[in-house]
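The methods section describes the discrete structure representation at length, but only in general terms. The central task, working out the structure tokens from the amino acid sequence alone, is never made concrete. Nothing conveys this as quickly as seeing an actual entry. For illustration, here is how one protein appears when written out as sequence plus structure tokens:
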Amino acid sequence: MASIVDSHDLKSLPSKFNYNYDPTALSCDAFPVVDFSALSAGDPDQRSKAIHDLSKACEEWGFFILVNHGIAEDLMSATLSAVKEFMSLGVDEKMEFAGKDGVDPIRYSGFDLNDNQRFSLWREKLWLDLHPKFHCPHNPQSLREVVVEYKERCGEVSRKLMEAISDSLQLEHHYVDRVLGLDSSYQFVVANHYPPCPRPDQATGLVPHTDFCLFTLLIHNGVPGLQIEHQGQWFNVDSPKNSLLFNVADQLEIFSNGRYKSLNHRALVNEISERMSIAWEYGPSKETIVSPAAALVEKDGRAMYRSIKLDDYIGRLFNNREYISSYRQ
């Protein structure tokens, strides 16, 4: 498969990579921005404004750019570099970590022309379950070292964000922690590598989709490719260096009784530069039955979504293709 990835004179790709779509997207100079430092500031006026900004962004876009989050730029760069080092390993070394099924805590997948899938994305992916149990490949050693630190920092930011989300929904922190089982929250990362594609018009990195946890925090290597959908129109996302991209995911849409919408997004490929991204996914405990928050149901007069245990939601998503729309009522 390396010969296909490295070929620049192909007139067409193997049929399993063929994906027809319109990549057209608009630019936007006014994406919502939330200042994380203001969320934890002692100044109540600053915090109130930041929570208002967060709430408005989640309601209107399902997305915002998080700045001043406190995660060191060096750590973010080192994490991306370690992922690149893993993706640069030989095929046999990487396939040592290929998951046998969709629930293995470490799952690598790449460019396999011989698998049984009729359609393949133009990407390599490494999935790591990090909490409540930590899993990471032993090779390269640098990956485990930085992922341990990155997990801790993202976990701290995520817990603070959940407090702010609780306040934005006018819910008590202790209630949210308890009903979502956040002490045993399901946390994982998906590291994506999109090599240059000789025919980017015939392939895609990620098809339009939503994420299934509470929210996602994304970093990338600065190469464009991410697009988000807003009011039926696609937008190219260009984020400042050292920022985190936040998007609402399915469980937060359910928990907020539809106030915050899970964001549809996709990833394009190009023929010149490789793109790397790391998505940190933060969710409730897998054993938690996620329902619209009781106080919000009381305000709205009814639950807009069916309740479901996160573990069951994941199974139905991957096995039966049941998406967030299946739970709206």
